[in-house]
Structures are given as structure tokens and as C-alpha cells.
Design a protein that fits this description.
Elements (H helix, E strand, L loop, with lengths): L12 E2 L2 E14 L4 E7 L4 E10 L6 E7 L4 H6 L7 E10 L4 E13 L3 E7 L6 E14 L2
Antiparallel strand pairs: 1-2, 2-9, 3-8, 4-7, 4-9, 5-6, 5-8
């Protein structure tokens, strides 16, 4: 009889690369009946993202999620693209809940240094609201 065991943790390697989880947070006040861009700038050469958390939102407010090229034209040119343009949109008027809203994809998106992850928060209420945002990066590093 062959005995196998399963690790309680997911593997942190992909091919010849290691993954390192990096969680970043921001707080913003969103004025009543307005929308505001919340921008995370990727600080790592290469990452994968698959999860966003929103804390303290108003029930039924909406968000868009966009990946945008780097603001710096020289950095954007390294990737062969113009600066500060939307590259892809992953969320479209997504309805969120109050207290804690968490969205995790079963597959990741590749993001590179300088890329902007833009959350457009739409406060559909008559009150100003302070909202917290957490974005989970998985930094990719080649194994030594």
C-alpha cells in the first residue's frame, strides 16, 4: 500500500520561479455621489495578481478594475507601449458589499514593474465614505 500526503500549503514555485506573496493596502475617502480612482503601482519587476479586498464600503456601491501602462514614458517604452493607457479591464460596475468585499480569481494576471492597477470606486450614496483597499501581489523571482 502506498501512502501519500498532501501539503497544507500551496506550492510557491512555478517552473523555475519562486512566488512571494506581497499585500499592499490603501485608504481613501470617496465623496458622496462621486467616483474616484484608487491606483496601486506595481513595485516589483514581475508579479501575478489574483485577489482584491475592499473594506468599509457602502452596500451596493460599484467598482471597475483596470490595468494601465506605466505613467513614465521611458518605462512604458521598455514594454513597447505608450504611457498611461488602459491595457485591459477586468471589472465592470461590479456591485460590492459592505464590511468586507473580497474577489479572488482562480487564475492570475501578470503585472510588471510600473504597471498601474486602477480601481474606480463609485460611491452611490449621499455620504462621504472612507474605504480600505488591499491588493495581493505574488512577486515572481527566478530560482538561484
Amino acid at each position: 500500500m502506498q501512502v501519500t500526503s498532501k501539503s497544507p500549503f500551496a506550492p510557491k514555485t512555478v517552473d523555475d520561479m519562486n512566488l512571494f506573496r506581497r499585500k499592499h493596502g490603501l485608504k481613501e475617502v470617496i465623496l458622496a455621489n462621486t467616483e474616484k480612482e484608487i491606483i496601486f503601482v506595481c513595485q516589483y519587476n514581475r508579479t501575478k495578481i489574483n485577489k482584491l479586498e475592499i473594506i468599509g464600503a457602502n452596500s451596493l456601491d460599484r467598482v471597475d478594475l483596470i490595468v494601465r501602462s506605466p505613467v513614465d514614458a521611458q518605462i512604458a517604452a521598455l514594454y513597447g507601449m505608450p504611457a498611461n493607457v488602459n491595457l485591459n479591464q477586468f471589472g465592470f460596475d461590479v456591485i460590492i458589499s459592505d464590511f468586507l468585499y473580497s474577489d479572488k480569481s482562480d487564475y492570475d494576471a501578470d503585472v510588471y514593474g510600473g504597471f498601474q492597477i486602477v480601481i474606480i470606486y463609485k460611491n452611490d450614496t449621499a455620504i462621504d465614505t472612507e474605504v480600505g483597499f488591499n491588493l495581493i501581489f505574488h512577486e515572481v523571482k527566478t530560482q538561484a
